[in-house]
Amino acid sequence: MRILWICGSRIVGGAERVTVQLAQLLDARQHQVITLCRRDSKLAEALAHADLPLHRAPLGGSLNVRSLAAIHSALLQVVPDVALVTTADEWVWSCLAWRRPPRTRLVLVRHMAVPLAQRVCWLAGRRADAVVAVSEAVRDSLLGRPGIPPERIHVIYNPVRFAPRAGVPEAEDRARARQALGLDCTGRWVGFFGGSNPAKGLRDVVAAASRANLAHGPTHLFVCGPGGARRATPGVGSIPDLAREFHLEGRLHSLGEIDDVEQALTAADVVVVATHRRLSEALPATVLEAMACGTPVLGYATGGIAEIIGTDGLIGRLARPDDVADLSRVLVEMLDDPAGARRMATAALQQVRERFDPEQAVDRYERLFTSLGAPPASAR
Predict the structure, then answer these.
(1) Which of 14, 167, 199, 318 is the most exposed, having the fewest neighbouring CB atoms within 10 Å of its CB?
(2) What is the dihedral of CA 340, 342, 344, 346, to 10 degrees?
(3) pTM of the model
């Protein structure tokens, strides 16, 4: 089948990375995936690296009427079996396209658990053939607004981007990963992958690492993601400022945006995902990828974080949402119980193999597209 992926994102975030992965897998199954992206998007580089075709267009922005004309033109030129739309503004313009080819099925994908505007849900409920929610938390957020019939919402979990490890890393494996990143191999290490976005909870994690350092000896924290090491972010501060404020001088390190995510995840004894309730993660890639690397995960009990980890403490630990004291307490407990952390990581590896396998996700998308009337690959 022919699939037109419509994406108005300027950056390549988790939603874009996972959709590129799915596009590659669909391509390997003899489907044709063509992408319509904004002219200034960094997505073009990722698509070129994956050897996937793309068209550039003036997408992006809720008031950008040129997006409507660009999407309408692309639909008529490509005549896809499925138009797969992954950004909210483009949901609107795709629904408003006035002459969609009769064969084209419109499938909207939602990667965020933050509720959509009611008018967007109303429009999607009247024009889309299906809506994909990447977690139950996202489905719940969509059902919280009237407009989209429940039977039209399909939950398809995002897959993990790389194959899970065969087993939990040994201490020597973690030490080698730290050395490769230029980090001290001694002490205990906490990993944070949310950059300097205040809603991702960097200050919370720094406070938790500080408590662990004071109570139980050398504890280090490395930070990955957007935001410079010395540039102050409103509501967060700079890395040097945070180190001084929380008495972590020499133990708080900024690695910036890194290419080898697996290595960084392996370097940590615990990965902390402290996204605040107001942002409400849908299905955070960091949690899945840490699980696939055999690294224990601690997160605030919000959105998809709680959905993945569960409340029984078998594959990870949860802290009360936005509660720094509780986050600190649980982090100290995890660092003080390496045997328990290893049991969680082992169970998490099995969980990610069973629930978040890439081929399984592609199977579900194929079944959805076919159920909507799109032809199978053999009929292309």
Answers:
(1) 167
(2) -150
(3) 0.88
